[in-house]
Amino acid sequence: MSDPVIIKICGIKTKALLDASIAAGADMVGFVHFARSPRHVDIDTVGELISQARGRVESCVLLVNPDNTLVAQVAALGPDWIQLHGPETPHRVATIRDEAGIAIIKACPIGGPEDVVAVKGFADVADRILLDAKPPRQAERPGGLGHSFDWSLLKGLDPDLPFMLSGGLTPETVGEAVRSVRPMGVDVSSGVETAPGVKDAALISAFVRAVRDAG
Ligand SMILES: O=C(O)c1ccccc1NCC(=O)[C@H](O)[C@H](O)COP(=O)(O)O
Fold first, then answer.
1. Which residue has a Cα nearest atom 1 of ligand 1?
2. Which pTM value belongs to this model?
3. Contact 186, 214 (CB under 8 A)
4. Ranges for the N-(5'phosphoribosyl) anthranilate isomerase (PRAI) domain (predicted)?
5. What confidence category does residue 169 fall into, taking pLDDT thresholds of 50, 70 and 90?
6. What is the CATH architecture assignment of 6-214?
């Protein structure tokens, strides 16, 4: 039997929704620290949420092209993962992983076959890859936009690559995504919200149920 699909709920801002994600059966939760995001939480709140998650669910702090000071600040809070969701190069990802001593998820935007080729460059420097839709050029943030991408592009992907799928997943679409792409995990933000940055406990439950039914 294959391993259960890992479920990550990204963009949690409150203890109530952290508790709701755990109650629903999520495996990981993500906290976004990026000022232009409607899911942004300040560093003190990130620290409190990590403490509340510890031992109950894996925590992940999402950063965009962070400098060394921010990496050190976040690493000191003791999350299980740091997710790099910006234009970080493989060399920079390796440096951050060494400096932080924390497992790294590298988000890779997918818009065409060349982006799938570029994913290989992160295979040895990240602990996990997150495949996400490539944002439009004018987008004000590099992720969490609720956009999906053409999953058939992933046919050429190394089957041994530890990757999670994200980008516009919803309780309605995630079952088909799990069956057709067969990722090790799935990640959602917009698809379990009623408005940008406003998570909904019932949608989180529906998402988790849909993944478990498919897996
Ligand atoms: O959520 C944000 O606002 C955000 C800001 C900057 C970089 C990344 C961001 N989110 C990434 C995610 O929440 C997920 O990892 C993923 O992209 C899924 O997002 P969605 O398409 O909204 O489900």
1. 144
2. 0.96
3. no
4. 7-209
5. very high
6. Alpha-Beta Barrel (3.20)
